[in-house]
Amino acid sequence: MRTARAAAIVLAKELRLEFRTRELLNATIVFALVVVVLFSFSFEPTSAESRRLGPGLLWVAFLFSGSLMLHPSLGREQVNQTLDALRMAPISSFAIVLGKTLANFLFLCAAEAVLVPVFAVLYNVSLVGVWGRLTLVIVLGTVGLSVTGTVFSAIAAHARMRELLLPLLLLPILTPLLIAAVEATGSLFAVQATLERTWLAFLAGFDIVFLTASWLLSDFLLEE
Amino acid sequence: MKARILITMLTAAVVFFAGYAALFIAPDERTMHEIQRIFYFHLGCWTAMFTALTIAFVANIGWLVEHKPHWDWLSVSSVEVGVVCCTGGLITGILWGKPAWGIWWTWDARLTTCFVLWLLYISYLILRGLIEEPGRRATLSSVFGIFAFLDAPLVYVSNRLWRTQHPAPVLFGGPNSGLDPIMVKVLMISMAAMVAVMVIVLAERYRLERLRHEVDELRMVCQARAALSGDPAPSPASRN
User: Fold this and answer.
1) What domain range includes position A69?
2) Whole-structure pTM value
3) Is the dihedral of CA A23, A29, A31, A33 positive or negative?
């Protein structure tokens, strides 16, 4: 309970910080749009082709923008040594990690909420009737992305070349998440939209495994 | 020193015998013939890799629990050796895939898993190179190592659900799967040989890491003494 309250306070701090400038969110959304637009030149974006290639495109755009936007999460605490101040607070390390994970989750969801409708319009993919299920898939995928991304952002924050290092560490770990999310999204984009339970369960399993790992290892992540 | 030479000689003999057995003693395979003989080394590489990476996982946990430097030496050594075995496994697999399947590579569950593992552990080594401070390097790379090891079964399961072309397990895979009894013996010998080679290289690498640590400590003592007596400290160019 104490952890939940502390995490909520860290989350509020992160949101306040971001909404003062909104620079991270704006840059991420524009970057994701650039990726989506560039993909349109790599194949003929007819409706049938988009249904086939769209899910992969969408998730690669999410993963790329995630791996870029997650870096400042702990990276910007380094500039004025504010991480030391956070560490001195009488709260568990997991509360800090959890608060930051939730903040990153909300930022990513905001970026995805802009990106998905734009994608649907540009690539002629109808989302009528699959909104709810698509949201479920995206939320489960984004949880996994923000959990692993926040942990790795804390790892990369102490290294040289950290901007390059984070995608290098993060993207291979996300292979199973990418496969499951793309397959689930693909089945929703099909003419006969269905959602396979297996992939949902797999995404949930991925989230649980890494959330547990980050809970167990959070003390080491932030130790001085 | 004597024991090390003796063990190395013994392993060399086992490796030599395993090579001979794989090429001349093992019976001919019905469909793939001679090509199939790479199998003994291919599976040997993977056994050695999984052993090395499991040791690395244990060493990562060991460091986080105890914070004793020998766990860190063990984890970096075993990851390096594991990556070499993984490279060997991938290369023998590619060489075998072309004549057996007609293609060099396919994105099947086991191939993809091993390739992703290879990428992950190379990232682990890159990560270690980019963190200066030894204690922090050990802790953060251990956390990453644990995440990477946990990811392996997930990569495998996701690919398994998705698509697979690699043959089903031939050992312990059910009543109709299985190898000729002589093949099994040869396979066991070559797996033992590859694991023994891996262990010897790992032990040497571990020794190297320990010596490196000792040199670093001695250098720090020298610098401290020089600073106390007022002499100029050794120049940074003398490092490495």
Assistant:
1) 2-221
2) 0.87
3) negative
